[in-house]
Automatic annotation (TrEMBL):
Residues 508-517 have a biased composition (Basic and acidic residues). GO terms for cellular component: plasma membrane. This is Amino acid transporter. The keyword Translocase does not apply. It holds the Pfam family AA_permease_2. It is a multi-pass membrane protein. The chain crosses the membrane at residues 27-49, 55-77, 98-120, 132-153, 160-181, 209-231, 243-264, 292-315, 348-366, 378-400, 412-431, 451-470. It is found in: Cell membrane. GO terms for molecular function: transmembrane transporter activity. The keyword Ribonucleoprotein does not apply. InterPro entries: AA/rel_permease1 (IPR002293), APC_superfamily (IPR050367).
Length: 525
């Protein structure tokens, strides 16, 4: 008999194991969420809309929802640690077509966020270069420098990239905490009042505004779920990814919730809406400029660039591992599963991702594009919507799989936590698409408002069509989707074992990877 799992031309090298711990995984998730970018692009808009204390409170509420999500996510990662992360988990829980669809949602969503961060890097580099050298640097120069660094670190050993990202993430957190401390030490009016955090009459809360705030706020966490991509390379494959997910959610919530509250304290609870509307993306820096020395404000602007660099690098690694996992399963060219002989990094997938990003940046330059913070915000939010759908699919997959194939998880991890997160994330998906014009800050009839859902629908269609083609053209590869290269299908020689057959697509449950084991057909008579 011939055992078949991955394509015959799969490379002989695998990802290096035992390279990073849970703390490094948490920093990957924190960097991918890019809290400094959210504080500059999203929080001022929410404060200007009159949300006030609801902004920090919403980050706390969303952290609770995402911690519920992490329960099922960590349990699924313990059962099957894989670089495919959500792709693998959804394939096991909802079937192979849903798994491939999730993979494409992840890749395209991360790409959109990454391009938005590149645009933000170019926009942030211009004023710094102008103040330091007096030379006007075009946006594409800053973006190109960021791209070159990401392409370089993308092919290095994972612990090297983890060290760089950890250093940048710690520096970002330290600077943000310093700015927040200055806001608290010099509050508006000389004292901190309960009005900065108190909602006087919950019954008067504008429910559409609250829904908009929750939907937009959860998009600020997009990227934390990429912690699952490093399960195979962690010291404890069955635990590090889950612990990293919990850690990144807590860190992002503390930074976003804490810093947004200190901004209210610094500007004054009664003035924050007008101040945020007047200063926009400069709100964080203007508040710091009133309280800190000029060099500290310049350091804050520099940390924005390093935050963008860390975010792009973290997203690059996540996308490279999705491409690697899909190449290993045979649904994309097997060359993408190639790893460095010495580094153990997914070198082929990383170089492919670098070429895609470089081609996109070159195309934007040739087309004469001049993206700024507003364009970056549109792209980041559009990509985050795709990731929000990924979270919903992953939560539902965990709920179904953990209960369909019972393990040693308790009732909370197996049922209650995934159920609560699925309902909560489903509500947030509804609110996000219902309030999409307000989230993007555009009129309802604006073309971009229609383009974002159309692009996401295109990703879903791409995943379903891709799965159908693989199933029709390469049924053996289709049977291995979501299994990380594990050989589960046996092609018998009929003359030696006529009683063994490959499961057919119409066999009950064969669309789920855990049921892809061979079955014996009934004997004669």
């Amino acid at each position: 008999m011939e055992a078949v799992g991955t394509p015959e031309d799969d490379p002989p090298y695998a990802l290096a194991s035992g390279r990073i711990g849970a703390a490094s995984v948490s920093f990957f998730g924190l960097a991918a969420a890019a809290p400094a970018v959210t504080l500059i692009t999203l929080v001022p808009v929410a404060l200007a809309a009159g949300s006030g204390p609801l902004v920090p409170l919403s980050f706390v509420a969303l952290a609770v929802v995402l911690l519920l999500f992490c329960g099922g996510y960590a349990a699924m990662a313990r059962r099957s640690p894989s670089a495919g992360a959500a792709y693998t988990q959804v394939a096991r829980g909802l079937g192979r077509p849903a798994g491939l669809t999730t993979a494409w949602l992840a890749v395209t969503g991360y790409q959109a966020i990454q391009f938005g961060l590149y645009a933000l890097a170019g926009a942030a580099a211009t004023p710094l270069a102008q103040s330091w050298t007096g030379v006007t640097v075009p946006w594409w120069a800053g973006a190109a420098g960021c791209w070159a660094l990401v392409a370089l670190f993308g092919t290095m050993r994972i612990e090297v990239a983890a060290g760089v990202i950890g250093l940048l993430a710690v520096a970002e957190a330290a600077v943000l905490v310093g700015m927040g401390a200055s806001n608290l030490l010099q509050p508006f009016g000389g004292r901190i009042t309960l009005d900065s955090i108190r909602v006087d009459d919950p019954g008067l809360i504008d429910r559409p505004v609250l829904g908009l705030l929750l939907a937009a706020g959860v998009l600020a966490f997009a990227g934390f779920e990429s912690t699952g991509n490093y399960a195979e390379e962690s010291l404890r494959p069955k635990r590090s990814a889950g612990l990293g997910g919990y850690g990144s959610v807590v860190l992002v919530a503390l930074l976003l919730g804490g810093l947004s509250w200190t901004m209210i304290v610094a500007a004054g609870p009664s003035r924050i809406s007008a101040v945020a509307d007047a200063r926009g993306a400069e709100l964080l820096f203007d508040l710091a400029d009133e309280r800190l020395l000029p060099w500290a404000v310049t350091l804050g602007r520099l940390i924005l660039i390093t935050s963008v660099l860390a975010g792009v690098l973290a997203l690059h690694h996540a996308m490279a591992r999705y491409l690697y996992a899909m190449g290993r399963d045979g649904v994309l060219p097997g060359v993408l599963a190639g790893t460095g002989r010495r580094t153990g990094a997914p070198r082929a997938a990383s170089l492919t991702q670098s070429l895609i990003a470089g081609a996109a940046l070159a195309g934007a330059y040739v087309a004469g594009a001049d993206p700024g913070p507003v364009t970056a915000r549109w792209m980041i939010l559009g990509g985050a919507l795709s990731i929000l759908l990924l979270l919903l699919a992953t939560s539902l997959a965990a709920l179904l799989h953990l209960n369909r194939v019972p393990g040693d998880e308790g009732a909370w991890t197996r049922f209650i936590s995934p159920l609560l997160s699925t309902v909560s994330l489903g509500s947030l998906v509804y609110l996000a698409f219902r309030d999409l014009p307000q989230i993007l800050g555009l009129p309802a009839g604006y073309p971009l408002v229609r383009a974002v859902p159309a692009a996401i629908a295109g990703c879903v269609l791409l995943g379903l069509v891709h799965a159908a083609v693989i199933r029709w053209r390469w049924p053996v590869r289709y049977a291995g989707i979501g299994l990380g290269g594990t050989a589960v299908v046996v092609t018998p020689e009929k003359e030696k074992a006529p009683e063994i057959r490959i499961p057919q697509q119409r066999d009950p449950g064969v669309h789920r990877p855990e049921r892809a084991a061979n079955r014996r057909s009934p004997g004669p008579g």
